[in-house]
Amino acid sequence: MSNSSNQPDAQFLARFADAWNRHDIDALMSFMADECEFHAVAGPDMLGKSFIGREQVREGFQAAWGAFPDAAWVDGDHWVHGDRGISECTFKGTAADGSRVEARMVDVFTFKDGKIAVKNAFRKNRPALAKAA
Fold this sequence. Notes:
Blueprint: H1 10-22, H2 25-30, E1 32-39, E2 50-52, H3 54-67, E3 72-81, E4 84-94, E5 100-112, E6 115-123
Parallel strand pairs: 1-6
Antiparallel strand pairs: 1-2, 3-4, 4-5, 5-6
């Protein structure tokens, strides 16, 4: 965090995104509040699939890399206003069947006590790209 109020800022979210791209689960979890939630881009419920609590959030984050071992979140822009934040980027990844995803996405964050309490992910529903040659 770059300010003295222990409030996350854009650089905080940029470091969080960097941890995603390094596939560093311990670093990611260091950004998360003790009571945290992650709402994935897809799943059976209104919010996709929800992971509640540190253990489930950790599993949910790791599931993203399981589904897309080469997952990358690039061209990120980050904003924070009060206890809310947004990261916008392009998600790129290759699934086990070789199909590729490349689509713009946003994460909407709620902060509590200088950490991420809620990460709610949204991604464009673009058809899979052709398998790499």
